[in-house]
Structures are given as structure tokens and as C-alpha cells.
Amino acid sequence: TASIDNLFKNHGKTFLGVATDEKYLTVQQNAAIAGQDFGAVTPENSMKWAAIEPSRGVFNFTGADYLVNWAVTNGKSIRGHNFVWGEYLPNWVLNITDAQTLIDVLQNHITQVLNRYQGLLYAFDVINEPLNQDGSLKSTHWTQVIGPDVFRIALEAARAADPSVKLYINDYTLDWNNTKVAGMVNLVNSLNPPGQPPLVDGIGSQAHLNAGEAPSVHGGLVALSEAGVDIAITELDIPGAEPSEYQTVVQACISVRPCVSLSVWGIRDPDSYRPTTNPLLFDESWQAKPAYNSIAGVLNSP
Ligand code: G3I
Predict the structure, then answer these.
(1) Any idea where the domains of the chain sit in the sequence?
(2) What is 4-300's CATH number?
(3) Exposed, middle or buried by CB within 10 Å (0-12, 13-18, 19+), for 270?
């Protein structure tokens, strides 16, 4: 039978992907599922700052290399994740309080990562979780030291390092039409002024949902479409979900044209970052759950 990735592509979408990393892909059952059922991978942790550059100028690409090599060998797209985030920062970065020094460090980090994987990445979450729920900019080490210009600086560095990568801003609770969605549209518009080459190619909606929220996702995607860039659902999981909730989210992406891709945040329930809530598509025995079958069902209908 066709995989949910193949079925999703039949609806004109780019891929249906999954977050994973070396410690999961080295388990044969996980590699088999990632290979058969999904069309893209996101490194769940291996491309985050503290994993990649634990000391200044000392790069550790071991985990990221494994993920990228696996994806290339198996013909999967790759969503890189992430560069500018207030979390997962090593102390040496947090200790930099001089703006120009931090800009130099940021530009070097982005350039090193994108040069290493030149031409291999489909997209990158250059900016992760920049907004408060009211739509204002979150205060992080980046904005405190560099200011809001950090977003433009990071996007320009990424564009220069590999122009083939789609550059995303990724955030959570964009799951209904709300003030944070409006803030995201404003942020993208401010970075993509009319008459200039756009810096932002896409908005990632993480979609770490709560049970019962799936019906509102469509309205969130429609409102995000106002920014005029691609949209990706990037980290979908639904604790305690009815199988139909997964179906509803997939249907929302299919019916909103700018929504190009959808990724779930892990393969097996026990490996989820919220492992007690069974939020994913495969159970502890690597069996496809009713949620998986509900997605296949909706994708099989014209
Ligand atoms: O690798 C170490 C291990 O050596 C150590 O023994 C263990 C002890 O705590 O920690 C391990 O690192 C953990 C890492 O996951 C790898 O498993 C970190 O503590 C833990 O904080 C980290 O959690 C990740 C979290 O982001 C923080 O970066 C989750 O796996 C990951 O699913 C989660 O993903 C985020 C997205 O990046 C952004 N959106 C929200 C999403 C969920 O929080």
C-alpha cells in the first residue's frame, strides 16, 4: 500500500515528514518506518546550537552528519532546525554581551552549518519561537544583546551561505486565528518589504496541539496565508488524540494552498518528548495506530 507521504504528494504537497535523530535511526524498526512512511526528516536535536557548536569555533557535526547521510542515502528531504532560538544555547553563547561579537558568532555558525550541507537541505528553521502569545517579540539572549535586527542578520547570513535553502520562521500556538498569528504575519511582512527579494520563504506552525484543537487549525493556516509565503506544519503531535483529529489537521493542510508540507514530531509514542500522552502515529511496538490509518483514509479520498 502507498505510504502517507506518497498519498500526501498525490495532493500536490511537498512531503509528509518526521523528526528523528541518530539514536532513533540506529534502531532498525525506526529506520524502516522513516524509510517507508515518511518523505522528509527534521533533526529533533542534532542541529541545535549546543549540539553543533558546544564551544566557540569547535563544531561537532556527528549527529547531524548521521541524519543528513541517512536522508541522502534514502532519498528524503531535510528540514534543518534551528539557528536563532532562546533555548539550547551553551553558556559560552549566553556569556557574550557585546552585540558585534554575538553577530560575528551567529554569522559564523550559520555559515559553517549551511556550507557543510550545501545543496542538501530543503528548508531551515532559521528563527525558532520568536513571538509571545500576544504577538510581540519575545525577549531572548539574541534580542537582548543584538536587538530585533538579529532576525534579518540571521536570514541574510543563511541566504548568502546557501541560496537553495527555504528560510523559515517557526513557532507554536499558531493553531487558531489569534494574536500570535497576526504577530507572525507582521514579522514576515517586516522582513519581506515590497520591492526587495524576500528573506523569509515560509512560516512553520509547530502544531503541538492539545486534544480537541484540531478543528481550529484550518483557520490558523488561512490567517497565516496573509503573509504570502509558504506554510509548513512542522512538529505535529496530539496528546490523547482521537484518530480523526490527525485526519482533520492533514485535511486542513490539503485545503489551504500555501501549506506545502507536514511533519510529525517523532516516530513512536514512547520516543515523543511528551511520551506519556501517546501523541504520535506509531505505538511502542512500531505498529501503525488508528491515527495513521485515518490519515491514509482521508488522503485516499479525492
Ligand atoms: O542528550 C542528553 C543526554 O546525554 C542526557 O543524559 C539527558 C539528561 O537530561 O539529556 C539529553 O538531552 C536532552 C535532549 O532532548 C536529547 O534527548 C535534553 O535534556 C532535552 O532538553 C532535549 O529535549 C528536546 C527539547 O526540544 C529541548 O531542545 C526534545 O527532545 C525535543 O523534542 C524538543 O523539541 C522542541 C523543538 O526543538 C522546538 N519546538 C518545541 C519542541 C518541543 O519542546
Answers:
(1) 4-300
(2) 3.20.20.80
(3) middle
